[in-house]
Amino acid sequence: MTLIKKVALAALVALGLVAFAAQAQEAAIRKNLAERLPLLGKIDEVSKSPMPGVFEVRVDSELYYTDAEGNYLLQGQLIDTKARRNLTEERQEKLLAIDFAALPMKDAFTIVRGNGKRKLAVFEDPNCGYCKRFEHDLQKVDNVTIHLFLYPVLGPDSTAKSQNHWCAKDKGKAWLDWMVRDQIAPKASCDTAAVARNLEFGRKHRISGTPTLLFADGTRVPGAIPAAQVEKLLAEKQ
Predict the structure, then answer these.
(1) What is the pTM of this model?
(2) CA distance linking residue 219 with residue 20, whole number of Å
(3) Could you tell me if 55 and 65 are in contact, meaning their C-beta atoms sit under 8 angstroms apart?
(4) CB-based contacts of 200: which residues, under 8 Å, 6+ apart?
(5) Which pLDDT belongs to residue 94?
(6) Helix, strand, or coil here: 121?
């Protein structure tokens, strides 16, 4: 066997040993945490974190950190102090990202301003005060198509208002009349299954509050951010 072949074989053996060790560590973490913390839930993923000796444990979209044997468990923010980056936040953003093309647009209505070239999806509750404040500020944003998903999470009255808006002849006008001008939409009836589907979609993707914004690259932003920040994100995320 030539020297080159011997070196290559040694490298393959080393890689195999590393992979085996990694699998053994993951198995130990899964076994120990499952036995010791059964209420933690099903572990979806175990991977090395950027911090030496520390492993990331993902349960759904929740992140935890542990040692190689699952003897200790931490929940919190992992910060790269040198790069000044919140690694936990960046990881969760990726986990919670939603493919914009996969949004159920048939269950939303659109509001188009200007040329409508930029895209934004928003999940809102008609009784949400932060949503009203956001809608007032959003009037300053032009050249955008807004896909509005009615997302009544604040109780039965929110559901009733959402259904009335969905059944309105001009959904966009009725929505802005209420959110911006405090003119309540009249009672109306139609097939409102879309509102229920929005709630199901939101639960599946862990949309827990309103407003929640989704940009064209899948980035999710919770909360009533100001128009200037919406403009900045629309420019970056298209």
Answers:
(1) 0.73
(2) 36
(3) yes
(4) none
(5) 84
(6) strand
In contact, 85 and 92? CB cutoff 8 Å: no
H-state helical runs in the chain: 3-36, 87-96, 129-138, 156-167, 171-181, 193-204, 227-237
- Report the alpha-carbon distance of residue 77 to residue 118 in Å, rounded: 33
Query: Does a cis peptide bond (omega within 30 degrees of 0) precede residue 50?
Result: no
Q: Which residues contact 98 (CB under 8 A, 6 or more apart)?
A: 205, 214, 218, 220
Q: How far is Cα 104 from Cα 100, in angstroms, rounded to an integer?
A: 9
Per-residue pLDDT of the chain (238 residues; tens, 9 = 90+): 665 655 545 455 444 544 445 687 899 999 999 999 999 999 999 999 999 999 999 998 889 999 999 999 999 999 999 999 999 988 988 888 889 999 999 999 999 999 999 999 999 999 999 999 999 999 999 999 999 999 999 999 999 999 999 999 999 999 999 999 999 999 999 999 999 999 999 998 989 899 999 999 888 899 999 999 999 999 886 6
The edge-to-edge listing of strands for the beta sheet with 73-74 is 45-48, 55-59, 62-66, 73-74
DSSP state of 101: G
CA distance linking residue 45 with residue 97, whole number of Å? 17
Alpha helices in 62-192 (DSSP H): 87-96, 129-138, 156-167, 171-181
Q: Which residues of 127-156 are buried (b: 16+ CB within 10 A; e: fewer)?
A: bbeebbebbebbeebeebbbbbbbbbbbee
Eight-class DSSP state of 81 = T
Would you state the structure tokens that stand for residue 94, as one six-digit string? 């990726």
